[in-house]
Design goal:
It contains 20 helices and 13 strands. The strands form 3 sheets. The chain has a 5-stranded parallel β-sheet with strand order 3-2-1-4-13, sandwiched between helices. A hairpin with a 2-residue loop joins β9 and β10. The longest helix has 20 residues. It is globular. The two termini are 42 Å apart. Bound molecules: flavin-adenine dinucleotide (FAD) and iron/sulfur cluster. Iron/sulfur cluster (SF4) binds next to α8 and α10.
């Protein structure tokens, strides 16, 4: 630790976002960067606590205090070397991770000013790419083949780990381009897709084969995969969105959030969308149902389309600002999140349940909502919702449903693959190795956990790779 007292005099400084009036006109990343001197000053704030809770909080076990120290000393190459030991893709986590580590930082717990760990992480990896610290490695080959199904952060991590161990890895992806939700879910203004392309290029140079437009179970059968490869890693995500089956659900104008988000990302990739399918919010009254991050991504997208108005509603109550006594550390703090998209303009409302979609000649005109209240949990149970009878209609031309994903819906493929090699029908996933029964099939990411986070998918991908390596090494 270079400067043991820095945290007493230096305050947290975030790089912040580009000005709203500028960023609202494009889909480029909104987050800015600090110059390297200020970045190093921020790294100096890390106290290298006796027990660094940030280690514990990070699902991939990043060694934050150690690389903060190297960063502070200007040893960027060494900082990168340490970071890459635990994190396959810091350029993704450094941009989109909700920074679980920062919620556990002692400087957060003591004075609400955690070290800027996430931003420091992305600064290290960007310098590493820029300065050429990252060069393709050519592992010694073992002569064994692994199929990875799905190219989201879980599949990419498993592929990267296994390839670097010398396995011949083929990644199967049903869509046009690899990346999973990094590519066709998370908006470009949070994660530029050139960042994914750069990593995929590197992985290809290192020997990973990507087969896009190839759906396992369709273009290639589960049986063929199971018999051609020595092991299979299923990383197919959790793709079925939670629906809202109320009156009027089939009206024109009601969409799942991902219909908007994935389409927008495809348009920005130059992928052709038939004009009749294009969802454009320009001049429309937009209502987003669901108060979480996916909903916030819809808000940012609708603002860039120049919607006439945007409202985001949530059935749960508004969480407190800053600190929530109901979720003390080490629980994840349930506090009000104001994203860059919210800052750009949107009405946010809470305690509203959707009653019915209202339309005219099959076209959406609004949503009837009812105010609800939440009664405190009885004996540790869940809070109880009570309808108040106060109803109103929110006018809307477009509704985006952002209420999470249903899980598990992908059991089908995992089961199919496993049964192709093991007729004993044991398809339980071993949580320690990610192995499915006694088969050569392993599973990871959202497909196993349900919808989660990029960093958790990456942690799971690493664990599956470890399990596969162990399995193929005996
Ligand atoms: C809109 C949105 C925004 C998000 N924002 C964030 C964020 O800011 N930060 C964060 O940490 N997390 C975020 N998340 C969550 C995060 O993206 C996911 O938890 C993560 O991507 C899961 O990774 P995965 O690899 O398990 O699955 P996915 O990323 O879903 O990848 C699965 C891949 O498998 C492919 N596939 C499926 N079936 C087959 C098949 N049969 N054959 C071949 N390929 C197949 C799919 O096409 C897909 O490419 C967001 C999620 C959404 C929906
Ligand atoms: S991956 Fe997320 S939790 Fe881990 S160090 Fe980076 S920002 Fe923190």
């Amino acid at each position: 630790m270079g400067n043991p007292k820095a945290f007493l005099t230096i305050h947290r400084q975030e790089a912040g976002y580009r000005p709203i009036e500028e960023r609202i006109d494009d889909f480029s990343e909104v987050e800015q960067t600090l110059n390297s001197s200020d970045r190093r000053t921020q790294a100096s704030r890390c106290m290298d606590c006796g027990i660094p809770f940030c280690h514990w909080a990070c699902p991939i076990g990043n060694k934050q205090p150690e690389w903060q120290d190297l960063l502070y000393k200007g040893k960027w190459r060494e900082a990168y070397r340490l970071l890459e030991q635990t994190c396959d893709f810091p350029e993704f986590t450094g941009r989109v991770c909700p920074a679980l580590c920062e919620k556990s930082c002692v400087l957060k717990l003591s004075c609400e000013e955690p070290v800027t760990i996430r931003e420091n992480e992305v600064a290290i990896i960007e310098v590493a790419f820029r300065e050429g610290f990252i060069q393709p490695v050519q592992p010694v080959r073992k002569g064994k083949r692994v199929a990875v199904i799905g190219s989201g952060p879980a599949g990419l991590t498993a592929a990267n780990q296994l390839n670097r161990k010398g396995y011949d890895v083929t990644v199967f992806e049903k869509y046009e381009l690899p990346g999973g939700l990094l590519r066709f879910g998370i908006p470009n203004f949070k994660l530029g897709k050139n960042i994914i392309d750069r990593r995929i290029r590197l992985m290809e140079q290192e020997g990973v084969t990507f087969r896009v437009n190839t759906m396992v179970g369709n273009e290639v059968s589960a049986k063929e995969i199971a018999s051609t490869f020595d092991a299979v890693c299923v990383a197919i995500g959790s793709e079925v969105p939670r629906d809202l089956p109320i009156e009027g659900r089939n009206l024109k104008g009601v969409h799942f959030a991902l219909e908007l988000l994935s389409q927008q990302n495809r348009i920005l990739e130059g992928i052709n969308i038939p004009p009749k399918n294009i969802i454009n919010c320009k001049g429309k009254k937009v209502l987003v149902i669901g108060g979480g991050d996916t909903g916030s991504d819809c808000v940012g997208t609708a603002n860039r389309h120049k919607a006439a108005s945007i409202t985001q509603i949530e059935i749960m109550p508004q969480p407190p600002v800053g600190h929530n006594p109901a979720t003390p550390w080490p629980m994840y703090p349930q506090v009000l999140k104001t994203s860059s998209s919210h800052e750009e303009g949107c009405i946010r409302r809470w305690n509203l349940a959707s009653v019915r979609f209202i339309g005219d000649k099959n076209i959406l005109k609004g949503v009837e909502v009812e105010e609800v209240e939440w009664l405190p949990a009885q004996a540790g149970g869940r809070p109880e919702m009570r309808k108040t009878g106060h109803k109103e209609v929110i006018e809307a031309d477009l509704v985006f449903l952002a209420m999470g994903f249903v899980h598990p819906e992908q059991e089908g493929l995992i089961k199919e693959l496993s049964l192709a090699v093991d007729e004993r029908k044991n398809i339980a996933i071993n949580p320690a190795t990610n192995r499915v029964g006694n088969t050569n099939v392993f599973a990871c990411g959202d497909a196993v956990s349900g919808a989660s986070l990029v960093v958790r998918a990456m942690a799971s991908g690493r664990q599956a790779a470890k399990g596969i390596d162990k399995y193929l090494s005996v």
